[in-house]
Amino acid sequence: NTFIMKPAVVHLASAPPPLHSVAVLLAVFFLSIRWLPTMESVDKMSTLPAFGKPALPLTLPLSPTVIGVVRLLFATFILGMAVVRMAGPGYNGHTFFMAKSRLRPSTIRFRGWRILAPFTYWCWIMLGVSFGLSGILSLLAANESDSQETTYPIMGRLALLSFEVVAPSCFLVSAVVKYALWPKAFREGGGPAGTRPFKTFYGLSAHNANVIMVLIEVGLLGGGLKVHLDHVAVAPLFGVAYVIFSWVMADQWHPEHGPQFFYFFLDTTLGWITTLALLSLISILLFFYAAFCAMDDVLEYLGDNLIIRLFGIVVVSSFVCRFRD
């Protein structure tokens, strides 16, 4: 009898990214830096009156004070939930990888600052910061008299740019969860048990309430806080920062089980697939940014109509939100 020995699968102790993936990331970074908007152009779009401008001045004439209070309520909910999550007992995150991967799936306990492992929480906290800054600026606008010309350039820039970065990213996060991560977790996690993290209060909020709050902002609340297409270079930088974070932290999440990536498509052991996935993610991020700008334009074209805006919010959110298996 002849016995054929199959080569044993060797699991890695570390998983540095391929050189071509590093080259692509550096190229995206430097191109984004090259095409960043000037501070002068940002300042023109982040004036104090812009943050107090209502989206529907005829059918929903909200005052700057009301707009500011609603934004601050959003910020309080978002950041408060993040603080509770960090201070709480944590949660178990399950990693899944493609068949060609050299990494071992694992269950990781995320608590404290480690809840930042998923890109979802990067977007969640950034959204809270953006709403907080824009809310404060709305209240300042409410107290501004016509004779005053007070400016808050640093706060205005941060409020506008953070919203431009995070609003399209929220749609990306929710779409990826609905169409990629949720189905994969259901298949490989034993059905409903595998998708349990997505169905918790935190999971549903971070993957659904984020989009709903953004849609309320652009559709009903403020008319001055928009995503501008000529600022598109800011979008990839946020993604680049998260990819670098994932690479640096891969060996730290669960050293006994080797490198771990919260998202299977960031796996650095897949050779050119890793780089293609990286290019796809950057392209998708840019697509969502452009789509968000187009949505802003469509809302402006539809005019000052509360019923149409409400209908649009329901329709758009149904494309990216998911609440059950």
Question: Your description of this structure?
Answer:
This protein has a two-stranded antiparallel sheet. The longest helix has 36 residues, at 153-188. It is mainly alpha-helical and 325 residues long. Helix 1 packs parallel to helix 9 (272-302) and helix 6 (153-188) packs across helix 7. The model is unreliable at 1-9 (pLDDT under 50). It is built from 10 helices and 2 strands, in the order ααααββαααααα.
Compressed to H and E, one letter per element, the order equals HHHHEEHHHHHH
Mean pLDDT across all residues, rounded?
Answer: 88
- Spans of at least 5 consecutive residues with low confidence: 1-9
User: Which class of secondary structure composition applies to the elements?
Assistant: mainly alpha
Order of strands, main sheet, comes to 1-2
Q: Give Rg in angstroms.
A: 22 Å
Approximate helicity band? 55-70%
Largest sheet: 2 strands, antiparallel
Based on CA inertia axes, which overall geometry fits? Answer: globular
Task: Write a brief structural summary.
The chain is mostly helical and 325 residues long. It contains ten helices and two strands, in the order H-H-H-H-E-E-H-H-H-H-H-H.
Question: What labels describe this entry?
Answer:
mainly alpha; 10 helices; two-stranded antiparallel ribbon; 60% helix; 2% strand
